[in-house]
Design goal:
Length: 374
């Protein structure tokens, strides 16, 4: 299937505090922009895949969004793998196109936790809340602390991730947080949950994004301006909660990456640019290890050496990622990967023939890997 499906269009809304906007209205705006980018009329869309809102999930999300868009797709559904749903939907859509179950697919997501409700991010995990295990940061902090104890990962190495993200986000006019961050500023920040400081944690953001998928053959027939081929994808899942895992420092990114690299016929050394899920600073460090860009335990040194900066050998999260562009889970990483491969990113890497994108959900329970290229 290498290159037989393409991302034909991308679109998004503003990111940040968008008072008065519902998730559905944001999806409509983002989808309109994605269809315009692909130069496709909405009447041609026959499949719609929607990631449900995290802050206000509802039944029949796919059908509610279809109604708002004025569509009657023959294939329509909502898809929940947490943040990994983005690449999960791309994978399913690619297979459905290949099987001729559908022709043109819209994949979309939106949420408004910043001006709506962010209560879901603060909830306790069962009775463990009595002992301070409250909210998403606490769970990721356990993983980060274990990585630090096991491999000697340092606070400065954690800080290298948001520093790079903020440098890149400062060049992105769409980024929610465009203020550069120095190491001194980072180390002076208060802890949210040790070892995480404020800048180690993803933004809380309103916003929406969408992409349009079709076969490469269909894109040629429609004279799509800048289709980006999908070279490979893979999924992985750890079914165990953090408290039940035997190993906190390895994830099923190893599984999804192996599948994606095999499908693409590529290896880590063939990748020019990366857009890696960075809900917390430890996540891309571990993803770099699990993807094979460095050995296990060396992810901290990898990022500290500046290799993920725009002028490094693996520019990462070149629009700012979840730490600077928007905290919405994952779709923005695919959009920036497309821009890099097209060569029209705000902060363009010197070489971007191939791009790897990661998405993950829960507390590193689900993982998706996508490889795209020209």
């Amino acid at each position: 299937m290498r290159g037989r499906t393409v991302i034909a269009g991308i679109g998004h809304t503003a990111f940040g505090a968008l008072s008065g906007r519902s998730a559905t209205s944001l999806i409509v705006e983002a989808t309109r922009n994605a269809l315009a980018d692909a130069n496709v009329d909405k009447t041609m869309v026959d499949a719609l895949l929607v990631k449900p809102s995290t802050s206000a999930p509802q039944l029949m999300t796919g059908q509610i969004v279809a109604e708002a868009l004025g569509l009657q797709p023959k294939l329509g559904m909502s898809w929940d793998q947490g943040g990994a749903a983005v690449i999960g939907m791309i994978s399913y859509a690619s297979l459905a196109i290949e099987a001729r179950l559908c022709d043109i697919v819209v994949i979309c997501f939106a949420d408004n936790p910043r001006t709506g409700s962010s209560e879901v991010y603060r909830s306790s995990t069962g009775t463990d809340g009595l002992f301070g295990y409250v909210g998403v940061p606490a769970a990721y902090a356990m993983i980060a602390r274990r990585h630090m104890e096991q491999y000697g990962t340092t606070p400065r190495q954690l800080g290298a991730v948001p520093i790079a993200a903020r440098r890149h986000g400062a060049a992105n006019p769409s980024a929610q947080l465009r203020k550069p961050l120095s190491m001194a500023d980072y180390l002076n920040e208060p802890y949210i949950v040790d070892p995480f400081r404020r800048s180690d944690c993803a933004l809380v953001s309103d916003g929406g994004a969408a992409i349009v998928l079709m076969s490469a053959e269909r894109a040629m027939q429609l004279a799509v301006r800048a289709p980006v081929p999908i070279l490979g994808f893979g999924l992985g899942q750890s079914s165990w909660d953090v408290r039940l895992r035997q190993d906190l420092t390895t994830t099923c990114a190893t599984v999804s990456a192996t599948t994606a690299f095999s499908a693409a016929g590529l290896a880590p050394e063939d990748i020019d640019v990366a857009q890696l899920y960075d809900c917390f600073s430890i996540v891309p460090i571990m993803t770099l290890e699990d993807y094979g860009f460095c050995k296990k335990g060396q992810g901290g040194a990898f990022v500290e050496e500046g290799r993920i900066e725009i002028d490094g050998d693996l520019p990462m999260n070149t629009a700012g990622g979840l730490l600077s562009e928007t905290g919405m889970p994952g779709m923005q990483l695919v959009l920036e990967g497309v821009r890099q491969v097209r060569g029209n990113a705000n902060l363009q890497a010197r070489k971007a023939n191939t791009c790897i994108v990661s998405s993950q959900g829960g507390i590193m329970q689900t993982h998706g890997t996508l490889i795209i290229g020209g």
